[in-house]
Design goal:
Elements: E1 6-11, H1 17-31, E2 34-41, E3 53-55, H2 64-80, E4 87-91, H3 94-104, E5 109-114, H4 119-124, H5 127-134, E6 138-143
Parallel strand pairs: 1-2, 1-5, 2-4, 5-6
Antiparallel strand pairs: 3-4
Length: 147
């Protein structure tokens, strides 16, 4: 197996983030890989910005919802020992932005959580399914614990 050079952890900052993060970080340590985190904002309105807009984590805004998301990402990054320059917050459609970022940054493994959907939920799609089937690199979908 080839050594992974750049591992990307795609997070939704949910309650299961730590579970997925630990697995991704373990691989990064094993392969001594560059390790980045991406969170795609799709759940809050972003005035006057286009999809694909990268949010600067080093500058404060007057938008409270955005500041909360930035704070959560920074907190996760700090807990994982990932510097701010390897933490990425993007406004857009998660499956598209994760794949675009991975291509631009020469990522060779994307790690993300999967709910293991079946039936109609699988047909309707999920971010994990879309990334798995369209990414140009390896994808590790970590099965999330059942609720």
């Amino acid at each position: 197996m080839n050594k992974y050079q750049h591992i990307l952890l795609a997070v939704d900052l949910s309650e299961y983030g730590e579970y997925v993060s630990e697995k991704a970080l373990s691989l990064a340590h094993k392969y001594q890989s560059k390790f980045s985190i991406i969170h795609v904002l799709d759940n809050i309105p972003m005035p006057d910005t286009n999809y694909g807009t990268v949010i600067d984590l080093n500058h404060d805004s007057d938008y409270d919802l955005l500041e909360v998301e930035k704070s959560k990402l920074k907190e996760l990054g700090k807990a994982l020992g990932v510097t701010v320059d390897h933490q990425h917050l993007v406004w857009g459609i998660p499956k598209q932005e994760i794949i675009t970022f991975a291509k631009q940054q020469h990522v060779d493994l994307i790690v993300l959580g999967s709910h293991g959907r079946h039936g109609l939920a699988l047909l309707l799609g999920s971010t994990a399914t879309a990334v798995l089937h369209t990414a140009d690199c390896d994808v590790m979908a970590v099965r999330l614990p059942m609720e």
